[in-house]
Structures are given as structure tokens and as C-alpha cells.
Amino acid sequence: MAHVVTVEGVAEDAIRAVASGPANGVRVEFADALALMGWAGANGGAYGSRRGGPVGRSAAWAAVAAVADIDWPPEPADIESAGAHLEWWLWEPGRRLGGWHLGLAIADRAESLAWAINGTDEVDEEAPRREDS
Asked: Distance (Å, rounded) from C-alpha 130 to C-alpha 123?
């Protein structure tokens, strides 16, 4: 499940809008945020198949291009420039126990806009049976 918001304000405002309670966040470098997005895009979650690094990297670049309003397909230099211009935050729910989580916030202070995602994939029921099993 994923919940994504866009708000007028800063990263902390976006995190508050998407978190379901208290949250802990820390500002990170673009490279760290890009690596996390790539991992999340490559990961199949609790029940899915792993899509792999190239798919994850493409999804991460697509997210940066969308936030920075860059035409697709972007040049690598455009992604790097956009990433350096934006603020990147990782965050976790304050009361989180177990499961997979993607908590990322992005802020464009020049535009007074921020985005946040609360992505989870928790195993809380029996795994679905696959027909090929």
C-alpha cells in the first residue's frame, strides 16, 4: 500500500500529511534517497517477484523527473542537477514494528512544494497461494 501527498510547504509538512501518527525524519543526500527509491522500485514486497535493479533505477529516475518537471527520458545530468536542487528526507513512523516501509519526503523550497510517500508491505495474513506452486 502506498499513500502519496503533495503539499504547499516543507518536507516536514508533507510527512505530517502522510504519516498516520508520530514520525521520525532525517535529511539525507540525494544519492542515499535515489538508492532507496531504486531498492524500493526493484523490490517485489512480501508477495511479489523481484523486478531487479534496472527497473528500480528507472522508477527512481521517473520519480525525480516527475517532481522536477523534467521531460522523459531525462539526461543523467538533468537528474543529478534536479536531485542536488531538492531536499531529501527519510522518515519512519514513530510506532513502527516490523514489515517493509518506504518513507521518503522531497522538498523544493524555491517553489514551496513538498511531497511524501508512506509505502508499506506488511505480512499480516497468510500469503496468497500461487497457481504455479
From this structure: 16
Q: Which three cell numbers stand for residue 47?
A: 508477495
**88 close to 31: Cβ distance less than 8 angstroms:** no
Instruction: Quote the pTM value.
Output: 0.84
Copy the grid coordinates of residue 116. Answer: 511524501
Residue 53: CB partners within 8 Å, gap ≥ 6? Answer: 38, 42
Q: Which three cell numbers mark 37?
A: 527509491
Alpha-carbon dihedral angle through residues 16, 90, 114, 76, given to the nearest 10 degrees = -170
Report long-range pairs for 58-62 (Cβ below 8 Å, ≥24 apart): 60/34
The amino acid at residue 73 is P
Q: Is 105 helix (H, G, I), strand (E, B) or coil?
A: strand
Phi and psi based region of residue 112 (left: phi greater than 0; alpha: psi -120 to 50; beta: remaining): left
Interval 67-91: pLDDT, tens: 999 999 999 999 999 999 999 999 9
